[in-house]
What does this fold into?
Amino acid sequence: MLSSPGREARMPGSVTDFSLVPGWAGPLFTAFLLVLGLCIGSFLNVVIARVPEGLSIVRPGSRCPRCGHVLSWYENIPVLSWLALRARCRSCHAPISPRYVLVELLTGLLFLACLRRFGWTYELFPALVLVSLLIPLTFIDLAHWILPFSLTVPGIAAGLVLAVPRGADAVVDATLGAVIGFLAFRLMEYVGWKVFRKEALGGGDKFLVALLGAFLSWRALLGILFLSSLQGAVVGIAMLGLTGRAGPSTPPDAKPVKTPEGVAPPPPEASGVTPPEEGAAPAPAHPPGDERVTPHEGAAPPAIPLGDAPPVGVGATAAGAANTEESEPESTMTWEFTRPGIPLWKRALLVPWCLLFQPIPDAPMDDETGEEEEWVPGPTNIPFGPWLALAGLEVMLLGPWLARVLPMDIAMLLGGAP
Ligand SMILES: [Zn+2]
It folds into this structure.
């Protein structure tokens, strides 16, 4: 964990500096990496479309979302098929979103950027995995304002495992990165809620920060926080000046106004603040699809500010029973572990759940009227997840370059140098 000369030129803890590919084979392998990136980008399109809906990413095969026409292999070739089909379904001629080709090209180009940064070393592999996680998380957060646990939690695990070949120090750094990132954002989430009386950060953001910390070590966290806040603020202000609003004023698939629970019956899936059923294990890895109603079923999902992830501990059963069980609106944090008469082991389990994973309530009770303030997405609401992802990529891919061009103090901040 000590700094050494030249450290800033590598990933923290990097030990594999030699190239695994002989020079003469370089162009061939580079072309292969680009094609691999395009193909993985094609798969990430499936992840982006299906994971928020809670659908399988394996079956069925790709099909036209409008007419259900099953794509044959030659309609499924990244970029080329989209061009050959002139961005239209071959069967019903419905336009195919340019997002598909954008995700494919972005993945391919970021794969090449990773190669340029790390060469054919071991460090290339975790970098490619991180890119393949950040792209779907970004596009899902932009479209649905959630960061699904089914991507972030396995992602954190992958970051920790991929640190193992770098040695024990790197594993410690990655673990610290995940833990510190998570705790810092949990604390900010709590303080933001206490001070500003509203949900300032989405519940899923802390898992994304933990993921970035696991891949890029704790050293990168301060720089990521700095870059994401700075760029988010600059773009937000610029868009506010140009268009009058900083982002989609309502999440595209979300209900604009959340009815205060208790006043009107909430939709079943709006049980975002249901406390876990007694004895329910703290399970952050809850699949997001369980409690979300897909748009074509008619009901709009609740407005989820700032890239929130589905609440912890709310399963399909809890969501279904929400209307009957949840007579009291849950607008404060509950400290279940202080309740008398709980077995000690259950108390021990409840302490970390309450402190770390309990969803931050949307709006605290108004002290005077006893009514919950309505949360309406304001004009400056924009999910924070994409900014975190962008900052993570910048620190990973441009770290040494930033260290050279920036003033020493800022470079130290970004590099996390001690
Ligand atoms: Zn079609």
Summary: The CA atoms of residues 182 and 206 lie 5 Å apart. Residues 64, 66-67, 69, 89, 91-92, 94 surround zinc ion (CB under 6 Å). Residues 168-196 form the longest helix (29 residues). Confidence is low (pLDDT under 50) at residues 1-16, 249-329, 369-380.
